[in-house]
């Protein structure tokens, strides 16, 4: 029975339903804790205490022997009276078997080195080897950097250290100086040595030089005509700005109009209403860490410490802030928009209050409820106050009436329970009275 119910979702609170019926988060609930909470009057729904005996042995009390219930439970993945089974979201047993993840293939390695690294290293080595051989051969065979090729001319240094003279080598081997002559190192290039690509590049360069020379001359001679025509062309090309529209809707920016995601979203909005987004406000006290000491009702003399965020004066201040935020308005298309016009209302149209996850909802957002107290019959000591109501609601957030004497509901104004593990933060384990923030 527990396994069939443990995964059932409660869409209004985005929580598992067992969180309401167990008095604690669903992941911390067990079959024993579930039945114990359901049989306790602390949940606000059970009229008297019910003690569940879990076991498969007979239990004898006085002259009565109780036999363990032995009924077959219909699993959540089984049909009951020809009804459909629970979905995979609410019943893990209804989910299809997920095939195991195939193991990752063994990484490719050569000489204990990744194949990609090894291949890149070989390519880099071959490229460098080819490049250096090419450079060496080019300098030796083409540029004659080692003077191993015969040359018609050789250059010698003058007496004053410059190279202004070139000596011509005659047939008899004697050198004759020609002052003022220029050095000739490279052989002459013939027309046959020029490639087709070089000819094309030279022709294109000449063509561009001629065109831009003519265009520059025309612009210099007719400046007004050029500026008028340029402005007219620029204005004609910019005419589309008049029909330009800026898309700011993130839905239109991230999904195509006919995409599957967009189609399913439009279907959901038209049948169930648009989805909502959560806005979060975190409140804490950074300059006051004084604990709130609460005295238990008489005849007990014990006290319990709560953090400073549960101080009554602080609760009133935060409630004023919360009410001010709820009353914010905005003008849109000549209409006044309030929070209730755009917020999530799970019980609308019967209840149009917004879903606000705050512990102030335990007091229905009312200053009077925070100040409410119950005195003893003599009017001498306080039997219950806002802390007692808070302690009860933290244990049973779905209760419609507390049992401490204040007779106030723990449900929010919107009619839903306020779970402490959602509305509080900074607590240790399940000790919600140690919370440091809302």
UniProtKB/TrEMBL annotation:
The chain crosses the membrane at residues 116-141, 224-244. GO terms for molecular function: cholesterol binding. It is found in: Membrane. It is a multi-pass membrane protein. One of its GO terms (cellular component) is plasma membrane. Residues 1-115 form the Niemann-Pick C1 N-terminal domain. This is Niemann-Pick C1 N-terminal domain-containing protein. InterPro entries: NPC1_MLD (IPR053956), NPC1_N (IPR032190). Residues 265-437 form the NPC1 middle luminal domain. Keywords: Membrane, Transmembrane, Transmembrane helix. It holds the Pfam family NPC1_N. It comes from Magallana gigas (Pacific oyster). One of its GO terms (biological process) is cholesterol homeostasis.
């Amino acid at each position: 029975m527990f396994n069939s119910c443990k995964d059932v979702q409660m869409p209004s609170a985005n929580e598992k339903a067992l969180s309401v019926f167990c008095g604690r988060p669903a992941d911390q609930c067990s079959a024993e804790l579930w039945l114990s909470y359901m049989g306790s009057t602390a949940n606000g729904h059970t009229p008297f205490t019910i003690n569940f005996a879990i076991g498969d042995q007979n239990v004898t009390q006085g002259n009565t022997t109780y036999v363990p219930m032995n009924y077959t439970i219909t699993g959540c993945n089984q049909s009951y009276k020809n009804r459909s089974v629970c979905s995979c979201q609410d019943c893990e047993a209804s989910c299809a078997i997920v095939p195991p993840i195939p193991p990752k293939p063994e990484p490719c390695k050569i000489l204990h080195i990744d194949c990609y690294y090894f291949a890149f290293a070989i390519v880099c080595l071959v490229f460098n080897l080819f490049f250096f051989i090419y450079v060496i051969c080019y300098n030796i065979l083409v540029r004659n950097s080692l003077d191993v090729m015969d040359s018609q001319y050789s250059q010698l240094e003058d007496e004053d250290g410059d190279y202004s003279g070139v000596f011509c080598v005659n047939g008899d081997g004697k050198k004759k100086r020609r002052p003022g002559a220029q050095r000739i190192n490279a052989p002459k290039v013939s027309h046959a040595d020029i490639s087709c690509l070089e000819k094309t590049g030279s022709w294109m360069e000449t063509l561009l030089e001629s065109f831009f020379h003519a265009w520059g001359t025309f612009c210099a001679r007719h400046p007004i005509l050029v500026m008028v025509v340029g402005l007219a062309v620029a204005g004609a090309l910019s005419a589309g700005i008049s029909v330009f529209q800026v898309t700011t809707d993130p839905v239109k920016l991230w999904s195509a109009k006919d995409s599957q995601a967009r189609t399913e979203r439009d279907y959901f909005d038209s049948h169930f209403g648009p989805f909502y987004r959560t806005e979060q406000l975190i409140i804490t006290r950074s300059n006051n860490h004084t604990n709130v000491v609460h005295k238990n009702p008489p005849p007990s003399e014990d006290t319990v410490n709560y953090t400073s965020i549960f101080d009554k004066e602080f609760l009133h201040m935060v409630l004023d802030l919360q009410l001010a935020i709820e009353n914010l308005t905005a003008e849109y298309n000549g209409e006044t928009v309030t929070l209730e016009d755009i917020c999530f209302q799970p019980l609308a149209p019967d209840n149009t209050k917004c879903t606000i996850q705050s512990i102030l909802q335990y007091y229905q957002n009312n200053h009077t409820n925070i100040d409410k107290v119950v005195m003893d019959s003599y009017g001498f000591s306080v039997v219950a106050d806002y802390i007692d109501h808070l302690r009860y609601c933290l244990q049973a957030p779905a209760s419609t009436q507390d049992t401490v004497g204040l007779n106030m509901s723990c449900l929010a104004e919107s009619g839903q329970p306020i779970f402490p593990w959602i509305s509080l933060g900074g607590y240790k384990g399940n000790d919600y009275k140690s919370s440091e923030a809302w």
